[in-house]
Amino acid sequence: MGTAGSIPMGMGMARPRIIRDMLRYFQAAQQSHRMRTILLLLFLLPLSASSCTAFKHTRDGRTFVGNNEDSWCVDGRVRFVPGEAGRLGAVYFSSWRGHPYMPWIDQLGMNEAGLVFDGLTVQPKDVAPSPGKPALEFSDLANHVLEQCRDVPEAVAFLRTHDLIHLHKSMIFLADAQGRYAVVQNDTILTGDEPYFAVGNWRLHGGTDHEAIPIPRLQEGRDLLKDGVAPTVDGAWSVLKCMRASRAFLENGTFFSTLFEPDSGKVHLAFYHDYDHRITFDLREELQKGAHTLDLPSLFPPNKAYQALQAYRTPFHDRWLFRGLMVWGGAAVLWGMILGVWVLVNGVRRYRRLPVRTSWPLVLAGLALAALVGLVGVLLTLEQVFYFGLGDVQPPLAALPWFLLVVAVVLLLRLRRHRGDRWPLLPALVLVLPMLAGCVYWGFFLPH
After folding, report:
1. Looking at residue 214, what DSSP letter applies?
2. Cβ contact 92:79 at 8 Å
3. Is residue 4 part of a domain?
């Protein structure tokens, strides 16, 4: 969701903010006694680099609800669940980023009564718990709402009876066959039935100036809706197409797009911002087939851009790489400490007027190892840097690979002229050079 639900993938978040968010989640867990689910949510961080868009359009008695699921996911599923024991049948969409510890979570869908649910990530905000109300985790929300509610008023009434404290940085977008919509956040519930409405990854309140929301693709879609698109499938697709994301790096962006016709139960689907190849499901017909799950990418022709994304490896896809970076960072810490002791010994020897080795190369190597450790910390905690670049987190971080490159060149030149420095400097180079190779592979020397 924009992804609220990947979870709710899901925008640039600095490491201190992640730590604060972790503490907030632990506090919420202590208050709600749901530590197990909270720990699960921690594995899904960070969520901030997604940028989803959704809209509803009602005209001439027809309603369309569209969503662009923007993320760097590598797999997706379409799941049909027939209703039973008083529950409504529904179709659910989920995607997976390849994180070895991240489960599949239903992020959006529509039930057989025509109620559409979508989750989007928004700016985090703390709220006080609601005493006496049970709390619902995001991973449960889509299923509970679509199984039990037939329209937006029922869904809003249901959600008002629950504590929404876990929508800390997520919001829910709801729409139904009658053209009604709702935006549900942990501190605000907005409802309406205007002819059109569009949302992105932006926290809303009653006084929000929607024209001032700084999401250009969202504003392009709003302008198109305002000008009046035809109440047809092609007209609705034109809105989704103008709000799609396709970035230069790996062409990642909109993983899939859904277009719902809640009155007829039709579900239209496009994959990886390719709107020339679309498929359509009839929800009622699919539910009659019984419970079944479809692999989303396999429903479409081969897509070279998507195949390139699948082939792109990060620590969040491969456990060996994640663990390898941890070991590499630990080795850098150990050798950096040894270099630090070496420099201190040189200082003592210099004080005693004894022969000493030149210290500045040791200091420079130590600084490079410190930068390497910091870079490893970023790479293991902030997944978005692999798709948006280091500068998306904090602009100064983009200088880390260049600093390592400059130091590596200086140390290599030093070793050529002073072979006696091999023992202290060569291990530092052995640690720095593979990290530089990784920076080249991940595109950190170029703007994303």
Report:
1. S
2. yes
3. no
Give the number of domains in the chain.
2
Q: Kindly write down the DSSP assignment for every residue of 327-389, as one continuous string.
A: HHHHHHHHHHHHHHHHHHHHHHHHHTT-----SHHHHHHHHHHHHHHHHHHHHHH-TTHHHH-
Rounded CA gap, 9 and 104, in Å?
Answer: 12
382: left (phi over 0), alpha (psi -120 to 50) or beta: beta
Residues 97 and 187 in one domain: yes
Per-residue pLDDT of 1-48, as tens digits, reads 444 433 333 333 333 333 344 334 334 434 433 333 333 333 333 333
Q: Measured between alpha carbons, how far is 37 from 103 in angstroms, rounded to an integer? A: 12
User: Does the structure show a pLDDT above 60 at 164?
Assistant: yes
Q: What is the pLDDT of residues 88-134, one digit of tens each?
A: 999 999 988 777 667 788 889 999 999 999 999 999 999 999 999 99
Residue 3 is assigned to a structural domain of this protein: no
Report how far residue 290's alpha carbon sits from residue 305's, in angstroms, rounded to the nearest whole number.
Answer: 33
Residues 63 and 178 sit within 8 Å (Cβ to Cβ): yes
Q: Which of 260, 285, 311 is the last residue of a domain?
A: 311
Q: Are the C-beta atoms of residues 200 and 213 closer than 8 Å to each other?
A: yes
Spatial CA neighbour of 165 closest among 144, 184, 143, 146: 184
Check whether residue 145 and residue 239 sit in a common domain: yes
**DSSP states along 111-175:** ETTS-EEEEEE---------TTS-B--HHHHHHHHHHH-SSHHHHHHHHHTSB-TT-SSEEEEEE
Contacts of 429 (CB under 8 A, 6+ apart): 408, 411, 412, 415
Which tokens hold the place of 299?
Answer: 């429903």
Q: Do residue 286 and residue 341 come from a single domain? A: no
Q: Which of 241, 276, 311 is the last residue of a domain?
A: 311
Do residues 286 and 415 both lie within one domain? no
Question: Using an 8 Å Cβ cutoff, are 249 and 387 in contact?
Answer: yes
For residue 48, give the nearest of 87, 94, 1 by alpha carbon: 1
Question: What's the CATH number where 293 sits?
Answer: 3.60.60.10
* Polymer length in residues for the chain: 448
What distance in Å separates the CA atoms of residue 172 and residue 1, rounded to the nearest whole number?
Answer: 10
Domain presence at residue 2: no
397: containing domain: 319-441
